[in-house]
């Protein structure tokens, strides 16, 4: 692969537009750029999560996900192109199944927290949901492939499960929600 970035500060965006991979210029406030930004932010949060001590299988999975998110970003930057493959969604489905099988069934809602790694996974989950909403909004305005939206939907579910896995890594547990209603014995 050749060198793609020869100059970082081009000043071409000073007027509030940015270039897509097909050389089209669009407003930095466009739905497509919002979606790209949300996917980029998610990938950055995953990078932060990867600085934590993690089980090696989780680390390898998150690195793969970062690469797939780069594919998703590439697809968003080149309207009409499909870079994220349906197999990537299937891989998330399999990981979701495998990790969820290791966990006890949920008896109550859990709060985002516990270990630092689990809390970071919850942040990633919420950013993935926002990125998914951005893709849905973009898809309502113009034609998109379904795979990126499906990928983000599965990824947010997987990140919830991974947060639970990471809370148990080292002997912890989930942080359970204790609602007022539950404390009063269910009476309203």
TrEMBL record:
GO terms for biological process: cobalamin biosynthetic process. Residues 1-23 are annotated as: Disordered. It catalyses: 2 cob(II)alamin + AH2 + 2 ATP = 2 adenosylcob(III)alamin + 2 triphosphate + A + 2 H(+). Residues 8-165 form the Cobalamin adenosyltransferase-like domain. Pfam families: Cob_adeno_trans (PF01923). InterPro entries: CblAdoTrfase-like (IPR016030), CblAdoTrfase-like_sf (IPR036451), PduO-typ (IPR029499). One of its GO terms (molecular function) is corrinoid adenosyltransferase activity. Keywords: ATP-binding, Cobalamin biosynthesis, Nucleotide-binding, Transferase. Its EC number is 2.5.1.-. Homotrimer. PANTHER family: CORRINOID ADENOSYLTRANSFERASE (PTHR12213), CORRINOID ADENOSYLTRANSFERASE MMAB (PTHR12213:SF0). This is Cobalamin adenosyltransferase. The gene is yvqK.
